[in-house]
Design brief:
The chain is built from 21 helices and 2 strands. It is mostly helical and 507 residues long. β1 and β2 form a beta hairpin. The radius of gyration is 22 Å and the shape is globular. 53% of the residues are buried.
Length: 507
Amino acid sequence: MDVLSSLADGFSVAITLQNLLLALLGCFLGTVIGALPGLGPSNGVAILIPLAFTLGLPATPALILLTSVYYGAMYGGRISSILLNIPGDEPALMTTLDGYPMAKKGQAGEALALSGIASFVGAFFATWGLVFLAPQLVKVALLFGPAEYFALFTLAFATLGGIASRNQAKAAFAAALGLGISTIGVDGQTGVPRFSFGEVHLYDGIDFLVAIVGLFALSEVFVFLEHHHGAADADSSKMKIGRVTPPISMLKKTAGAMGRSTIIGFVAGVLPGAGASLGSFLSYSLEKKISDRDRTFGTGDPRGVAAPEAGNNAAAGGALVPMLALGVPGSGTTAVLLAMLLALNITPGPLLFQQNPDVVWGLIAALFIGNVMLLLMNIPMVSIFVRVLLIPPKYLMPAVAMISFVGIYGISGSSFDLLVMIGFGVIGWFLRKLDVPLVPVILGVMLGDQMEKNLRRAMTISDGDWTALVASPLAMGLWAFALLGFVAPLLFGRLFRMKKREEDVGD
């Protein structure tokens, strides 16, 4: 049982005072970020990346902090969904369907506690799935050559929109924009500057951390400046919390829903591009078909809260599997975490488990610890998190801007990078107004260089023969999945969105 011994070594790395405090801080901040409507885990992790560098954290503590924020944000998304009927992020959308009706019936505390327990179940068992599945994927990854890696990166872009994507064309445009940005700088093969416009600072290309913080964090500030919303909905202060522990009968009633949804969510998370949104939707839809004999879903049925919460948190754990084992993110947030790994000079993929076992197993052990912390934190602190929703954005957004500027300048010491970050903030604000997704842009910036290198290597090895890209059965399978991943949303996306609108109307 080499896996279990490696996990034990990981616990010896994770259980230090510094790492435990960072996990606790990450869980708390992540829960707060997840509870604030609109931020979500991607933005939360992106905002705190500069903080990790400013504190000068080594690789393992930095990743423990950010993954704790990731898991905490997945937990926190349910708070505003249940109390305000406003999803903290897209995966929490399905929680509003039964969570808010429970709150209106005076069961807000029970709904919040139940969702916390369901989140724990989904994330806990998904982390065990990560423990056993990721090392097996590593063995498969060793079969990859340049052509297979190029096909794998293409698969990541092709499936990025996901079935829930509103517009595949916009997702494709965003990916193309990111790939274009990745070509800025000196050509690694010829040594010729490309798209640098004579600016020496651009010879090294665009730092993806600058792009991430600008696109996610600063664009959020610009959106606030445009709309200058006031405080959160005042009705939240009038919401009755009720008891903060669900009765045993409710836990028995929802146990099956948690188990089924954990499996569905984990599978959805492992698939590149599917992510927590699809895991949450499928979990709720399947549970409704199985359990809703009395048509109580949508009126405050506890199973309608447990199913999507277990599903989206299991998907969060599942999305880490392809990121760690193959270097391909399974969701938007893991794309941001991938950028953090690369910034720390750690390359995810087949050699990660051999070259950096302390980092990867320490991270996995910290996920178990973080899950327990989140469970213990979320139930007794329900009433406190409700008060967090009342923080006016006019106090929150200046803090986001300050962290962004101080963090990026602390990393590079370059005022030019601050100007580039502001430029990306404006681009992110403009893309949001056009409803263009930001994650494909980031993925293009991060993976574009590796795509180009692997394509050139494959062409060099084959002496320019393009059929080398589909020469192996593995490459052919990846291209087939890429084609299916791009076409499936066009065929089934409308059905997905129509059913989701029906659920919204039913609420």
